[in-house]
Amino acid sequence: MSLNSQFPKQVPFLPGHVFSDPFKENHHKTQQFSHINGTVQEKTNFIHEEFDPNLMDSMKFNAPPNLTYGSRQPPENDYIPRIQPPWLKYDRAVLRFYGYFQESVVENPNENFRIRKVIIYYYLSDGTIHVTEPRVPNAGIPQGLFIKRQKIPKKLGKNDFYQWEDIQLCSNINFYERVFRIQDCDTYTREFYEYMGKPLRLPEQMPRDNFENIRETKELKINPPDTKEYKEYFEVKLGGGHPNGGLNKYLQNDRKVLSFDIIWDDASIEGQLNYYTLNYYLADDTCEVKEVRKQNSGKDPYPLMLRRQKIPKTPILTHYPGMTLKKEEFYSPQDLICGNTVKIYGRECFIYGCDDFTKEYYLNVLGIQQKPATLKQERGKKFYQPVPPYNGYGYEEDSLGSVYSLQPKPPKKDVRKNFTQDQFILRFEARQISEVREENSRRFIISFYCGDDTVQVYQTSERNSGIWGGKFQERSRQKNPLTNDYYTERDFQLGGIVQFNVYKFQLMRADEFTINYMRQKPDVFKEADISQIIAKLRLFADGYPNFDSFLLDLMKKLDKQLKGYIDFEELSQGLLELGFNLTLQEQYFLMREFDRNGEWKLCMQSLWESLGGKRA
Question: For the DM10 domain, which residue ranges apply (predicted)?
């Protein structure tokens, strides 16, 4: 018998109540796993399984019953509880009540009792309550935490604790034989009670005691009636400034400026119309007059006609400021109306306009609608400065930079085009067009770089021709003499003529890459789009009685020998006889499209079907 079995059953089975058996000698543990013939096996000597004859019979007849023997009862609360416990449902939810209790004061002639304010917190998660007392300066009593957070019983010695239903406004509540009066609560608490169907009563007013009245009387300071005058006197005596009587006006109208457009007609010999801007500052009723500068006016740039100051209607001029005792009358917003004249120290200025803020201010504050006056428009002076001719250094953009600015900047390049089109180079075989007969036989390779629209020309040579091959023209941008614009990829069409400086070239053929590039861009190379070429051919059918007669005439003129195939010369000669003006590039792509055998011969059957003819 073990030592633990000798202990009485009333002792709980907890740490500290169970001791090891000093008489036990065998501490072996049962080995359940073993290794037999290289296989891990489990011993079943200690496993007892009940024999079920019904299960054996069902397994013999291949009809196993329901092994669970009945459906499982659904749990009341799963790991995701349907009925939330209070600690989950009311997590961080706290009800707050404001209250007080009355405490008697002895041996004090000024007061017999004191009202001590408290705040009662009720935690809905576990039903605990704690009470705090706000600190009052110079109260003479310890304040702060009054009752620690705990469950408070309704009566001492019993397990009946306060719940949130037991707390109501305008009622007394007993915490440990001390009676508290609940006076008010916060908004969340009132909404919670209304949601639960138990609305709270209306709050009542907090009573006052003599201590609070005396404390407010001590803190109340009443200045003597002449304090302001004394402060101003001592401030000026110590070197300070005079009191600012317009401080309130400054704070209300700071950064509010009325702007007017005025004009002064200088009637002197060398005078002219002068335009100014009058700014009226509402913060201190001062004005400034700024000159409106115009380019190439021939006048020295004076920014201000009058610095910021008050403008008198009739100025009193003295040898020294302050020598007169007369009071001057200054301009106010009521005097500055569009269409009126303002006299600024002898200069009569006409107000002909104002800004949008000034219009809104007059309309909303003064009830006056500002209507700008119309002035006669002056004829603008046009100055023409011719652009000097190109000096030959660099590109024309570089030369124009020194014309437009004293510190020229390099011209901006199309970086996006350079990155996306730099790998595309269009190569054409061309011949020179010249008045000299021998030079017409010279052949060239023209390379157009799509990244920066530059052109490079190489000359090819044949044996015993007497012509040196190699680079004919450096890579550079060239201008079209017809349009005076730089050449673009749109200008390079088969059969077209391009001119670089004084040399003219006719584009004869293009490489395979250039042909495919033209096909991929039908919006740029419209003459390379076979659909547009076919549509253009169909337009010539308008001169025939019907479309079939057009097709028959076209086939007879192109294929006169009825071979079924024609070469490029027969195609050009037939279109010329018919009067169909197709360009060389259109004829070239038409020939490539219907060349079925790769022998550079056009299949008439394919052309017939593409134009809409019926198959034979």
Answer: 91-197, 254-366, 422-522
